[in-house]
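pipeline/complex-builder :: batch 7 item 3
reading input block
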Amino acid sequence: MNSAHENDRLLACRGLTRWHGSGCPACLEETGPERNTNVCPRCGTVVALAQASLDLRRGEVVGIIGESGSGKSTLVKMLYFDEEPSAGKAIFHGPEGVCELFELNAAQARKLRNRYLGIVYQNPHLGLNYRHSAGGNIAERLLLAGVSHYAEIRERARVLLRRTEVPEDRMDELPGRFSIGMQQRVQIAKALAPGPPLLLLDEVTTGLDVSVQARILDLILELQHELNIAMLVVTHDLGVVRLLAGRTLVLRLGRIVEAGLTDQILEDPQHPYTQQLISSAL
Amino acid sequence: MSNAPAAYRKTAGFPFAYLDEYAKKEIRRKLLKALAVPGYQVPYASREMPMGRGFGTGGVQITLSIIAPDDILKVIDQGSDESVNACNLRQFILKTCPGVKPTTRPEEATIVQTRHRIPELPLRKGQILVFQVPYPCPLMYVESSESKRKQMHSEQDYARLLVKLYEDLVHFKEITISSRYPTRIHGVYVMDPSPIPRWDVPKLHQSQAIHLFGAGREKKLYAVPPYTDAVPLAFDDVPFRVEDFTDGGGARRTCVRCGSDDTFLDEFFDNDGRRVYQCSDSDFCNRRAAAKTRNRKEDLCEQRARE
């Protein structure tokens, strides 16, 4: 690898594994797509994700597709420190140097998450505090990232809401009064507030009607071009990865069964499961 | 020392200062820890007291643990020596601590037990101020789980407290927290200074006296040692400020009794339904009012002498 390539690195996950249960030495062998189960027949442990490795460069968008229960959300939750991995590591090349995410102590992890990671959940209820105004939600994120200047917080919140097409004069309203599409845009503004190099999108358009979906996707695409943020896009909607992601991983029963350029995967799927997934969707 | 309590116990039926020596020792040990880690909430075994939890049992237990027969005690409730809570607790402490003398003058007292105020007169070195605390944790508003709050304290994760200040500024153009203003002690832990008004918060900063806080129902003790920083949370560009008692015309309101224009005032309606203001610190107000009449009399005497 040349050095330019080296500097481009943002995230490298190696062997990320997460199981729920006691775990036994046979767990990983006895589960997976070949065995057609993710429950270990010996000890009953559920293997949510096994041996997942992926690389992400700065400004790159990688899609993760798969059916529900395939481990997509588990992967994102671990990267956002919402869940702890059972094994594996993730190297993050952040603005303050390189670190292994799961070796950080709680305070370091919180700091890294607050400054350099953003997440947008499927349900805005998970990402927003409905007792605070839309501006207050963004302020929370900025305060967590260490901004303690009131006027600056106001101004940055205003800019973010403008950018995500939320009317500025509704900045001090409670998000509960907004339409779902607008709540989702506030959530995106909140996730973007500290200017993170990596944004995690967990099924952001699922459950929205088609025209709202299109506007949210447009917005995300626009922001990505403008701010050059790397994104991990988790979805089961093939249209979303086609639009957003340059590369795509296909997950099944906790394993990555196929990875490659999105076009290639959608047009010429190699793995039988991917073939099935794509033929059933189209 | 060892025989005296035992002898007292025999005659009175309970030990000096009501609590047994083991209980007092435990509380004193926890107080030392609280003083060593300023602003940190130390859990302790809050004893049953012959009064309901929430009536100042935390403060009473601290006072009883540190009091000796030669102490001079002042007890106030909302600044007043005469209100119900102050009278009851004072009676209880005097009854169970023979030798202790009561006073209303803060400068004479060795221990001042207080509910919701700090006396107007500055305290000096060697004095101890004991606060009765209903809710010890400033994070209570933003996080309901105690174990998460503990973790937030240990990581000094206080940003979410500022969101409340942000929302206040947005909606009311000023911070509306009237009491229990979150205050950072010694640059580390943020503590709840008990329901004292914002007016009193700056008095904690670099004070000469010892401040001990006891929450009996919540079973927590904490402290601000002398000469320690106590900095109220605020934005860089919106500084903390105390209550301002200016009226619509921009003039400082004054106490209706003593005429003070530099004290914390309580607002109430007099018999004619007029809004009036009076010092909340009753001892301070009484003495200023007395000095005023004395001056008036002296002036009168002088005037007569001249005539």
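note: Chain B has a mean pLDDT of 93.
queue -> next item
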